[in-house]
Amino acid sequence: MSLTTTLSPQQATFPGTPAPAARAVGVTKQYGAGDATVAALDDVSVDLDRGRFTAIMGPSGSGKSTLLHMLAGLDRPTSGEVYLGDTEITSLRDKRLTMLRRDRIGFIFQSFNLLPTMTAAENIVLPMRIAGRRPDPDWVAAIVQTVGLDGRLGHRPSQLSGGQQQRVAAARALASRPEIVFADEPTGALDSRSGTELLRFLRTAVDELAQTVVMVTHDPTAAAYADRVLFLADGHIVDEMHDPSAEAVLDYMKNLGA
Amino acid sequence: MLTATFRSMVAHKLRLLLTTASIALGVALLAGTLILTNTMGIAFDMLFGKIGSGTDTVVRAEAPFTQTEGVGTNRGPIAASVLDQVKKVDGVRAAEGTVQGYALLTDTHGKAITTNGGAPTNGYSMPSDEELRGDVELLSGHAPTNAHEVAIDATSAEDHDIALGSSIKVLFQGPTQEFTVVGTIGYGDGIKDLGGTTSAYFDPATAQKVLGTPGAFDQINVSAADGVSQAELADRISDVIPAGTEAVTGKAVAEENADATKQNFSIVGILFGIFAGIALFVGSFIIWNTFTMTVTQRSREIALLRAIGARRRQVMSSLLLEALGLGLFASAVGFGLGIGVAKGLKWLMDAVGFALPFTSLQIEASQVWISLAVGVGVTVVAALVPARRATKVLPIEALRESTPGAEKSSKLRAVIGLAVIAAGAGALWASLYADGGMKLFGLGLGAAMVGVIIALPVAVRPLAAAIATPLRLRGLPGELAKQNAARNPRRTSATAAALMIGLTLVVSMGVFASSLKASFGDVLSDRVDADLYVVTSSAQAPGYSPSVLAAVKGVDGVDEVSANGWGQARFDGQDSGFSSIDPGNADEVLALNVEKGSLADLGKDDVMVARSAAKEHGWKVGDTVTAEFAESGKHQLHVAAVYEGKGWISDDFVVSRAAQEALAGPQLVSNAFVTIDAGADRAEVQDAIAAALADHPDAKVLDRAGFEKEASGFIDQLLTFMTVMLALAVMIALLGIVNTLALSVFERTRELGLLRAVGMTRSQVRAMVRWESAVISLIGAVSGAALGIGIGLAMSQILKDEGIKSISIPVLQIAVYVAVAAAAGVLAAVGPARSAAKVDVLKAVVTD
Ligand SMILES: Nc1ncnc2c1ncn2[C@@H]1O[C@H](COP(=O)(O)OP(=O)(O)OP(=O)(O)O)[C@@H](O)[C@H]1O
Ligand SMILES: [Mg+2]
């Protein structure tokens, strides 16, 4: 038995504690080469707990999106490992990784979440259609109900408001019962009312459907919906806060200089 | 601004290459067509101009009308006495009677020297006056001076190793004779034959004997004294020559002849022209697409230029300058390629057996100008709209443009398209019943095509849905492929149009050819009852000497020989082709189905008419019909019989071969049907006939299967030719498809990224693009095939009277065409599919 095996992350988990939904181990991401090298993430390690709502905050350029992309299997780190459940995903080949995103991960992006040629209903079941699987009609109906899209399902994205589009995206992210949902500034392009609706929906998904949600945001009010806030600066996780209030987050951010 | 333009052109090498290639291809096909048709034209001009170049005035028999088929009009001979009259006219420097006729050369082994593409094999009298020879010049040896000497064109001599002093046989309408080759002939400027024909030269007295009528000439060629113009000389001669003859300037005669022949080949020019048109259409479409892409990619660059103070007009002229430079460069490259294209097309026509009269490629300044002007013009116009947009539209908007709903299918478009189609169909319908229906038919055809092209964008969505139904089986990628193909109907239909036009042409010709073949087969099996068939040795030769018939008849075991000929005359004031038969035995082998009167009565002043013609004109047995022959003028012919007019012989008018000889002069035989004695062995008789034909290399004997194959051979050639044209159309269309897909992939980068992010694998993305391409190509192929079938049927219907009795749709062949088109679409998608699969997943996530 070698040292590495003994110290492998899976076994490092304490018995009795549920395994994290996703984790980063010493993740570094560098852009560019030579003198122009920029480290967007520098040796970041973090566990994201199952069934919880985690927010990631930090100044612009601090590496939030980069971290999210690494965790979600949208990009590969320069070094380090990323786990989704027990699966080490950085070593997966493109096809496996793609299927993993399809079956085990949900996404909400800041904008352009939907295929313009498809209706809301079709967009919601897109990942399952790609997989050639039949969506579970009861589950999809429940989600549509929760997200409040009844009567809009036959519309195309161009016929929906920005808030409605983001809710369709949220419904899509949850429709395939993923292990984890990643959202990068999902409310960034929304007015506060639409934003609030979306955040409430994500909160409900965590509380009632036992979903795991990880969200990048600039908005302390949005962060206040989360169970835990991670603060990033210059590619490092510099701090975290549990059961945050908007005020506390705002104060902390001011100190960070964001 | 100039340097900015130049820098950006060089900076995007790949795009430059794609655009250059598309313009160059269009221009290359155009230039190739121009060069080829011009070369063909010059070959024809040479054929007549070179011989006539030293002749100022021609005296010839007047023809009552101009024949519309074949090379020029056959005229009656002119008496030798006229020559004496002409010689006395003031201003005549020299005048000589000339004779021209059928003369088939053989090589030293007695094998016929045949020409390509039905180019004539001619014999001429060699003028003794140097100037009257025109460009005809002796390259070696001397001019023929007696009845045993011949001079031949240098190409025949060189290609068949015929040395001076060797003796060869020459076949005429009359008996074959043996000559010693005493000279080889060239035509100035190193030209060694007259546009692909073979030529034999005899001294005038011999020529009269072997080619024409002793004591008479075909025409008198006159050379003017110094200072006398062609027109003046013609006028002076006109005053003295007898009625029934005319004096025409040499220039007019050369033009007449060349025009007559050129018309026969104009169809080739038109076909090539259509394909050059398709190529340019696709080319300009590609340019349009490419500039749209360029402009979107460069909108930031352009915005920057404008921000730093460049005015809209400057930005615009920078883009147009780019188009101009590109157009000029690509057109120049295209013209260079066009020379190769001309050679290639010529080679192709040779390969499929459609050889054309040809000489060295004739390149003229006008072709260069036309090609460059069209290439540059198309490029600039195609760049204009995207360039205008560039100066107005923001980058984000340019990207958004691809979302559905941006382009609504217009009702007006559908209405206009359908109206034009209806007008075209009406014209097609009318052409079924109108006289001279072919012109109306062409018009209707053109209108129908234009209408379809106008209306196609409206039909793209339903077509895509119909075609993609089987694709649904392939899950989401198939579904998305269908949606994407139908997303930008105008672009899709423009992409598919090239394939559509190509397939329309090919399929309509296919239906036509297949109907022709079916009709032919039916007639042959139902109506022709012969044991053996004697045909020309080369499929395209005009006929063989009647002396062949005598040789065949002499063979042991041969019972009857019934020969056919063909000619043109004016019956009851209307130009019409006629058949000539041997009345004694024609009915036995050809089942003419004589309904009234009797074939036995078909004498020298008689005619047999088809039932339909008899009905139309109210002719009955015993009536007279006025027939006018170019060679001999008007004659009153008695209607001796009325026949069904629907078998192997189907002309409205049929005369005996003896009558044809009397009315239209000596004739070649088209083919002959042979029956054998009861009890004789067919194979043995065939061998015996073949042996007897050893001295007649212009004819050969075939059994039934051989005859069928030979006689329908030209249809197969037609089909091969069409297949090659299809390949050409598909190749051109392929470029358009590649370009459209590249543009679509480029426009949909974010969607592709999104799809990849939510779990579409690379191979699914590739499949999606491939299916989209297949749907686009199938839209073109299926609509083209449908249109082609309709047109082919209409064409066959119109030609019902001309011998198309059975209509047949080559289903398998059309299915193959469509499959090939679809496969081409999938092939075209390889590159774009690959780049679609490579799209960066993060593109969808990162907003800029
Ligand atoms: N594709 C790339 N190439 C080069 N550098 C990049 C790339 N993507 C990100 N970076 C750099 O990495 C750093 C982190 O970027 P990231 O997008 O993760 O920041 P962020 O925290 O999401 O910022 P924001 O709040 O503005 O979205 C930045 O300095 C950025 O410039
Ligand atoms: Mg970000």
TrEMBL record, chain A:
Domain ABC transporter: residue ranges: 22-253
Pfam family, one: ABC_tran
CDD domains noted in UniProt: ABC_MJ0796_LolCDE_FtsE
Listed SMART domains: AAA
Residue spans of biased composition, Polar residues class: 1-14
Record's keyword terms, sorted: ATP-binding, Nucleotide-binding, Transport
Disordered: region residues: 1-20
GO MF term set: ATP binding; ATP hydrolysis activity; transmembrane transporter activity
Listed GO CC annotations: membrane protein complex; plasma membrane
Keyword field contains ATP-binding: yes
PANTHER family tied to this protein: ABC TRANSPORTER RELATED (PTHR24220:SF685), IMPORT ATP-BINDING PROTEIN (PTHR24220)
Protein name, per record: ABC transporter ATP-binding protein
Organism listed in the record: Nocardioides guangzhouensis
Automatic annotation (TrEMBL), chain B:
Protein's membrane topology: Multi-pass membrane protein
Signal peptide bounds: none
Keyword annotations of the record: Cell membrane, Membrane, Transmembrane, Transmembrane helix
Pfam family, one: MacB_PCD
InterPro entries: ABC3_permease_C, MacB_PCD, Macrolide_Exporter_MacB
MacB-like periplasmic core domain residues: 17-239, 493-691
Subcellular location: Cell membrane
UniProt KW Cell membrane keyword: yes
GO MF entries: transmembrane transporter activity
Highest taxon of source: Bacteria
Entry keyword Nucleotidyltransferase: no
Assigned protein family: Belongs to the ABC-4 integral membrane protein family.
Protein name (Swiss-Prot/TrEMBL): ABC transporter permease
Organism: Nocardioides guangzhouensis
